[in-house]
């Protein structure tokens, strides 16, 4: 072992060079609080040990361990690229839901709505999409009001996550076997009115701002008194509270 003292680099020149190198690196990261050097030393040590030496064309890690450890920054970059690749794969087959207008036809997914055919019957063989149903109006960019028969006793207001635009068959395929209609049971807690949160008058008629059960404030929509015929008590309570 070669004993050395400060300011005498001739005793152990390599150590003094390494120390000066680290001191220079620390100064580049130090703020006025020089006591924070300990927060940086482990990162600078890693940088120093992975630095390629011009004289050996290798890093200290390569000379001591036989390989170059991967930098956390490289791992972060790889994770970012992997996430981008996953997002690209996920979005490859996805299309933006087109804006619908009154009169357009859509299909409804009974599975995402937890509808079932008849009491006690299995749900796995229920058609994947049922319909078509006519769009009456757009409530907001993500919610549409549909025209449906009395066989569907639930709310007629649907989020686009349960809908798919209906594409008619080509003329040469018009003749096809008609599937039997299903008598669906719709859970009573689907698309119910949770509360009325406001009102306005349009052409002399009152419109209620409705919050639907299971949907947040971003899906609040305006509905007429006729649209709320299945929620008379909620309407009465709101009118009483507002003195209407």
TrEMBL record:
One of its GO terms (biological process) is chromatin remodeling. GO terms for molecular function: nucleic acid binding. Pfam families: Chromo (PF00385), SH3_Tf2-1 (PF24626). InterPro entries: Chromo-like_dom_sf (IPR016197), Chromo/chromo_shadow_dom (IPR000953), Chromo_domain (IPR023780), Retrovirus_Pol_polyprotein (IPR050951), RNaseH-like_sf (IPR012337), RNaseH_sf (IPR036397), SH3_Tf2-1 (IPR056924). It comes from the Eukaryota. Residues 191-244 form the Chromo domain. PANTHER family: PROTEIN CBG26694, PROTEIN NYNRIN-LIKE. This is Chromo domain-containing protein. It comes from Armillaria ostoyae (Armillaria root rot fungus).
């Amino acid at each position: 072992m070669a004993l050395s003292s400060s300011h005498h680099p001739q005793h152990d020149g390599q150590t003094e060079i390494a120390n000066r190198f680290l001191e220079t690196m620390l100064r580049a990261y130090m703020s006025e609080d020089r006591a924070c050097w300990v927060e940086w030393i482990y990162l600078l040590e890693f940088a120093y040990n992975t630095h390629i030496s011009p004289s050996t064309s290798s890093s200290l890690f390569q000379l001591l361990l036989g390989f170059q450890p991967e930098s956390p920054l490289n791992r972060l970059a790889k994770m970012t690229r992997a996430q981008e690749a996953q997002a690209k794969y996920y979005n490859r087959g996805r299309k933006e839901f087109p804006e619908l207008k009154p009169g357009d036809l859509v299909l409804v997914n009974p599975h995402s709505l937890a509808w079932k055919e008849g009491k006690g019957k299995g749900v796995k063989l229920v058609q994947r999409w049922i319909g078509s149903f006519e769009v009456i109006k757009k409530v907001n960019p993500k919610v549409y009001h549909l025209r449906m028969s009395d066989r569907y006793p639930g709310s007629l207001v649907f989020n686009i996550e349960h809908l798919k635009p209906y594409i008619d068959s080509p003329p040469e395929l018009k003749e096809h076997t008609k599937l039997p209609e299903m008598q669906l049971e719709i859970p009573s807690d689907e698309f119910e009115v949770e509360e009325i949160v406001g009102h306005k008058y349009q052409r002399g008629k009152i419109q209620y701002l409705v919050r639907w059960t299971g949907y947040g404030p971003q899906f609040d929509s305006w509905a007429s008194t006729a649209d709320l015929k299945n929620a008379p008590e909620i309407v009465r309570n709101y009118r009483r509270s507002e003195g209407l």
